[in-house]
Amino acid sequence: xxxxxxxxxxxxxxxxxxxxxxxxSKAQADDxxxxxxxxxxxxxxxxxCATCHGTGGQGTTDGPSLVGVGAAAVDFQVGTGRMPAQQxxxxxxxxxxxxxxxxxxxxxxxxxxxxxxxSVPTKAQYGPDGADIxxxxxxxxxxxxxxxxxxxxxxxxxxxxxxxxxxxxAPKHIYEAMQTGPQNMPSFPDTTLSEQNKKDIIAxxxxxxxxxxxxxxxLELGGLGPVSEGLFAWIxxxxxxxxxxxxxxxxxxKAKKS
Length: 258
What we know:
The protein has 258 residues and is an all-alpha fold. The protein has helices spanning 2-21, 26-48, 50-53, 70-79, 101-114, 123-126, 133-143, 145-148, 171-180, 195-208, 226-257, and strands spanning 155-156, 162-163.
């Protein structure tokens, strides 16, 4: 019996020491980190967001509900400085970002805990590897050029709203905007534009708005598409034809008098 008691005590001591000193599993560590991020995000939300969106993200008369918008919407809106908004208006403009990326991640973690929604994309999703620029241009002209113009220069909408220019916008934020449909923009989930389609559109915008990009057609006329090109043709092209016609008529009249 003494030997059995000693064996049981040894096993109990060994198990206790292992439980104390053994490292926590990766899953447990991830859960702990996520819980901490949610707690910190809730604190940030209470200070900077609850006034308009409600204490639990349910929305108020001053701001929409955030339940189910997902981490991607938070990363876009806060990461571009649009949120917190300075004042209500027809459209919330991009401005200086006041939160760090770590704080934005914490806010996104808290909002995600309120309801499932689009997650923040990875670099593999919006990076240029494997993208088809020509296909991206076709998709952009079909789905986006009506508001943003042919090369993403932006354009005016109704009632003081506008489609912002896309030059210089981070690829991650362009992807998130397509996912979530901020403000006046419709959303393009993967059932409408696949992950590859979004990658192609981003690659096209990078190609036409890069630092060393030159217009393949010469003078780009603002990159605003057929409207500015047609106006140029009517004013200068037709004006030149009228001037030539007047000159020919004057020369003809002078020749007859001679």
